[in-house]
């Protein structure tokens, strides 16, 4: 296999080009061995496989939450609705107890499922891959669900540095 060529662009150009891709917004939740609830906002969620049911997301290696996510057996991917922008920002920026006052319920795995999420995936932490400055987590979905039976609830979307909702074309 031919080796990769060195990048022919600067890091700012790479960041700006990536920002053009619209992504859904999730909050990944788990429980530390101490019982403390942990959650982080992530837009790196993607499906991998239907059989077995696999999804992936990534986390910066320097994240304070990395040790818990790396060692835990389970986590939940909560897909946020457009109406949950405050929740997105809370799990992206708040220091201390991000769950204070946040309505949630324990899933079958004991991990927190956020009330109002338009979909959720309870995952077994199947594998991890260190790549660059992130770790890619591959989860095997044990249970999943969604709240909007009609498909009318808009997802929260991030693109070009701003949050959006979607509308039909």
TrEMBL record:
InterPro entries: Flavin_Rdtase-like_dom, NADH-dep_flavin_reductase, Split_barrel_FMN-bd
Primary enzyme class: oxidoreductase
Pfam families the record matches: Flavin_Reduct
Protein name, per record: p-hydroxyphenylacetate 3-hydroxylase, reductase component
Ranges of residues in domain Flavin reductase like: 18-165
Family according to the record: Belongs to the non-flavoprotein flavin reductase family.
EC numbers, comma separated: 1.5.1.36
Name of the gene this protein is made from: C1-hpah
GO molecular function terms noted in the UniProt entry: flavin reductase (NADH) activity
Keywords: Oxidoreductase
Highest taxon, organism lineage: Bacteria
């Amino acid at each position: 296999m031919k080796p990769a060529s060195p990048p022919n662009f600067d890091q700012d150009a790479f960041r700006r080009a990536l920002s053009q891709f619209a992504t859904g917004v999730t909050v990944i939740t788990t429980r530390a061995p101490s019982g403390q609830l942990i959650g982080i906002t992530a837009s790196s969620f993607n499906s991998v496989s239907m059989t077995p049911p696999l999804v992936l997301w990534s986390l910066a290696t320097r994240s304070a939450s990395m040790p818990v996510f790396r060692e835990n057996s389970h986590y939940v991917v909560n897909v946020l609705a457009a109406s949950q922008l405050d929740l997105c920002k809370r799990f992206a920026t708040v220091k201390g107890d991000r769950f204070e006052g946040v309505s949630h319920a324990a899933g079958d795995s004991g991990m927190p499922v956020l009330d109002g999420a338009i979909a959720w995936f309870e995952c077994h932490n199947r594998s991890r891959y260190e790549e660059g400055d992130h770790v890619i987590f591959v989860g095997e979905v044990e249970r999943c669900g969604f709240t909007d039976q009609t498909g009318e609830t808009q997802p929260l979307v991030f693109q070009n540095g701003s949050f959006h909702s979607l509308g039909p074309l």
